Amino acid sequence: MIRENVSCLIRNSLDLYNHKKNTKTQKILGISVEGFKDYLNNNPYGFRYNDKDIDLDHIVPISTAKSQEDAIALNHYTNFQLLPKEYNRNIKKDNEFNKRHFEKWLLWC
User: Fold this and answer.
1) pLDDT digits (tens, 9 = 90+) for 22-33
2) In this structure, are strands 80-84 and 54-58 parallel, antiparallel, or unpaired?
3) What does the pLDDT look like over 29-57, one tens digit per residue?
C-alpha cells in the first residue's frame, strides 16, 4: 500500500510541471520503500504510517519547485514527514514546516 501511495504522490507532484514519472519510486525517494516506511515511523511524536487522520507531508512544499529537477529533489525521503491531517490541511497548507509552531499546536490538541 505505501509503495502505491508514494508513487501516486510523486506522480502528482511531477504532473504539476507536465512531466511524466519515468523513474522508479525507490530511486526518486533515495531509499527502499520499506526503509521509507521505517523512516516515517521513526518520528518523535509517535505517528505511524497508516494511522487514522495522519497525512504524508512534504516538509518543503512541492509547490516551491521551479522545475522537474526541483520536484524530483523535493520527493527525496528526507523531505517527507507524517503530520495530523487537521494541521497539515488547515494550518500548514502550502507553507514550510515550522517545528516549534507545530509542537505548540500539538500541546493544545
Assistant:
1) 678 888 899 998
2) antiparallel
3) 999 989 999 999 999 999 999 999 999 99
Question: Residue 104 belongs to what domain range?
Answer: 2-108
Under DSSP, the state recorded for 2 is H
Q: How far is CA 96 from CA 21, 29, 56, 57, 88, in A?
A: 24, 19, 14, 10, 11
Q: What is the DSSP string of 20-54?
A: ---S-HHHHHTS-HHHHHHHHH--TT---TT-TTE
Q: How many domains does the chain have?
A: 1
Instruction: Report the half-sphere exposure of 33 (CA within 13 A, side-chain side).
Output: 10
Can you read off the three cell numbers belonging to residue 95? 507553507
In the chain, the percentage of residues whose pLDDT exceeds 70 is 94
